[in-house]
Specification:
alpha+beta, 2 domains, 4-stranded antiparallel sheet, two-stranded antiparallel sheet, 12% strand
Amino acid sequence: MTNKQATPAYTPETYQQLLETLLKKQKGSIESHLLDNNQRVWIRRADPHHTMWPYRLLAVISFLLGADALKPVPSLGGKAAIKNEAKTLKRLAKHHILAPTLLAQTEQGLMMSHLSDLGDLMSALKKAEKKQDIEKVFALWEIGVAAIADVHQKGQHLSQSFTRNMVLCSENTIGFIDFEDNPDDFLTLSQCQTRDWLCYLNSTAYLLDEDTSRKRARQSFKRILGAQAQEATNNIKRNFCEPSRVSQNTRINPRQ
């Protein structure tokens, strides 16, 4: 069941005041809060900066392998992460892509709406796999593919499109969360979109461990993307699979 915003809604000024008050009490980096108007929101607090050494190590490995898509996009936490997430939420909203609504922001944190109570795609996939319901697994997998394809068709990209960051908002609708890094500060749009596919395929690869399931997945991918399928495949090959392209910058976050 998708969270419904209460009536009357708070004013932007009230959300701002609530954010500043709740930030002082919040202990975790991200927590859910139920406001007095019965609206559930999420607040992300600026964490200390993350260490750089994993990014440097991955950068060396990707250079040696010539794998563009493994070069890291820094996700260093702190005020930069808050700024990145707010910027991305505004961008996605502008293009009518389902993601939390930004309600308030300071340098130390931000408040955003709650998307849904249905859970994330990763949990749904694991539940279907546990029941050995292969048809449900593929149905969910295809919903994820279609959701990312829709983002790309609108000329946009995500951040860390792992299944745990994809929220079921209805039986056939996916929303996206977690935008602490900002790939387009470093990458071309083509590379950002390739990174989206690599994140998604990386988090679902365990479901496609047989020739039959891989063949079916390729067919679904082509069917869902239609005319986009060949372009997406070419981008993945160009940005990830060609060892001669050592100097390009498609990056994956090493903290995943």
